[in-house]
Amino acid sequence: MQAEPEHDVVVIGSGAGGGMAAYVLTKAGVKVLMLEAGRNYDPLTETPMLHTNHQAPLRGAGTKDKVFGYYDATVDGGWEVPGEPYSRGEGSEFYWYRSRMLGGRTNHWARNSFRMGPYDFKPRSRDGLGVDWPVTYEDIAPYYDKTEALVGVYGRNDGLENHPNSGPGVLHDPPKARIPELLIQAAATDMGIPCVPARRAVMTRDLDQRKACYYASACGRGCAIGAAFQTTTSFLPWARATGNLTITTDAMVHEIEMGEDGKAKGVWYIEKKSGEHKFVPARIVILAASAGETARIMLNSKNAQAPDGVGNSSGQVGRNLMDTVGASMGARIPAFENRPRYNEDGAMGIHMYIPFWLYPEQAAGKLDFPRGYHYEMGGGFSQPDMGVGGYGDMAGGYGAKLKEEARRYYGSYVWFAQRGEMIPNEHCYAEIDPELKDNYGIPVLKFHYKHTEHELNQVAHFQKTTLELIDRMGGEVPTNVPSPKDAIAPGGWIIHEVGTARMGDDPGSSVTNEFGQSWDVDNLFLMDGAIFASKAHKNPTLTIMALAWRNTDYLVEQMQQGAL
Amino acid sequence: MVLHKKIDRRTTIKWVMSGVAASAMTACGDRKETKAALDDGIIPARPISKHRASLGQAADISGTPYGTDPDLMQPANTWSRTMTEKQLAVTAALADMFVPEDEHSPSASAVGVPDFLDEWISAPYEGQQRDRAIILPGLTWIEQVSIGRFGKGFATISEAERASILDDVAVYGQEKEELKEGAAFIRRFRSLTMGAFFSTPEGMADIGYRGNQPTAGPYPGPSQEALDHLEAHLRSIGLKMPSLG
């Protein structure tokens, strides 16, 4: 057995939050040990950048082993992880997506990177629901700028309400809109709905050792050239280069060891390959294991002083679970049949999007749902896969005529996805299942989840608006629109779960202070989506990183002052 | 997004109802598939001729799923093909009826679609096994139809004879009552064949996929021709072309 290296801080998790924390700490000269539950992973050698579906088993189609398709970067993960079950309360539908790999879910995410705005940090002040954050947009804005500049984000400053601009020179130029996006933009503009360049953590110019996007290869595979952001091509190699970072993979952390002085002493983990239980001491512990796993570790860390779990004197650990409100619709555009071909891959993900636009109506009480949503949308000449078979279901028939129909329908569809804000409610939480354990013997999470009228009415608004958009575009308006209850994605389906250890001003109703520092345990910090006090419709990863940077700056300052 | 139409459960149940005949069980060569089809709620068609179609018994599913951490750089199959030569021959003949050679691209069988369909239905995954329970009995069914009409198997009848069968079962709105039980099979087989064909290099070239080409510098965006085409549509519905800045 190797001796554990000298380190001051143990970081649990290597994704967006843990990666940022390790980067900032090691740059400041702090010795860090990072523990990752998954295997080591190197995108430089493991990313099938230009492989075609033809080369993959089953033409790359998704299976239970690889739910987003054969080439998706996710290792040993998905909504089901072998040997690591979870349970659900009666009547609850919740799906927990995990990756077991260095870099976590940053290796395959969509890279959509929208800033939260001033309203998003003070939602209760605006509509009386949920809670306000203990920070304002102005507190976080400099960190958004720094994070975007470091990560590399394309987009444009449009100065829209509650959609703040980035600082000068921060954003990379957005890629040009493609034909389906231009049609949607034309219709939206006509209807008074903004449609502007999306913001994604994809570089369109070279930055440090990473190369600009070359407009091929789906970002979900990971990005060997570093254009699409993931911690495994950025934070982690940069932190390692300082000489201050040690990474231990296959290390499944399950408990924080507490001292009698009320401070964390270190963490216990199971070395997955040997099954051995190991303890590593630490001056500071940072949990960045994902909202679910962070809450699980805290709740599983029980002792005489903290019978309900470490850092849980408020009883809020595991509560306030939120995911993005999701629904989707598609339509065929007859005028797009046989449209002229060109390379429509672009940056693979969205180039354009529709930000929430109804703030004045919302403020005036004219909407029957309290919070906003945005559209992600597109369509186009994507690389053919088994889905092309669907054209046969459209066309019927056989022979040369059928081949002609396939050419006709290819690229004639558009899709719209709703990404909306959910309000935390008492029915949405995770707790420790009293009986079920995973294959390592660690008690698992049991999820409870229920949407309310707030979310369902928002879905109904999205559906109505989308039908109008499709009609205005000259599309075939779908007639079989499901009810909002059937259309809304189940919890966890959008993979934006947050809120399980929220920050706040009051130790009685929150788990951490504004810096992700546990109210109960001052050398325990949280740096993932667990600390979100609300779940704006904006995708969470950028905010996780900006908060982690701010939290880590504070931590370094406290260490330097000798407070920690 | 909207293209992946699953086989409608009700359709398959209807197929079952129309196909129920005890003799069908023994008439079909693939008892194991028949059992699987029964389990899945799909029963192969009753024989419509006293001659019994037999394509032989497909091998059992063998091998393992590729697992949650396969080598993405060097993809490899982890299971064996299972179709018999006769099943493959019917598969090839039928696939080529859906995707024949034309001036744009080769036929389905010329680019390995039958072998791929064998890979597909032999895969140890739930979705693929559902397809297996549709495809294998379906192959026997169409063989039976061929024998009933022409006294010969589907792989050996002429193209015109095959076309006469497909005219009666594969064209929406024109399905003959006595062949309706095969409609779900035909639909699924067609869908798999098209997906398999158009994702080959030849199929991608045919359908006009121009991507997967690394491009230096800014993304060039739509071609002028593509923009002109869009602009004509926008004009026709009274919309303005967005600024391309």
Automatic annotation (TrEMBL), chain A:
Keyword terms, alphabetized: FAD, Flavoprotein, Oxidoreductase
Coiled coil: none
Keyword Translocase: no
InterPro entries linked to this entry: FAD-bd, FAD/NAD-bd_sf, GMC_OxRdtase_N, GMC_OxRtase_C, P2Ox-like
Residue intervals of the FAD-binding domain: 7-64
Domain Glucose-methanol-choline oxidoreductase C-terminal: 426-548
Keyword Oxidoreductase recorded: yes
UniProt cofactor(s): FAD
GO molecular function, one term: FAD binding
Residues covered by the Glucose-methanol-choline oxidoreductase N-terminal domain: 93-323
PANTHER family documented for this protein: PYRANOSE 2-OXIDASE
Family (UniProt): Belongs to the GMC oxidoreductase family.
Name this polypeptide is given: GMC family oxidoreductase
Source organism per UniProt: Parvularcula marina
UniProtKB/TrEMBL annotation, chain B:
Pfam family, one: Gluconate_2-dh3
Domain of life, per lineage: Bacteria
InterPro entries given in the database record: Gluconate_2DH_su3
Name assigned to this protein: Gluconate 2-dehydrogenase subunit 3 family protein
Organism: Parvularcula marina
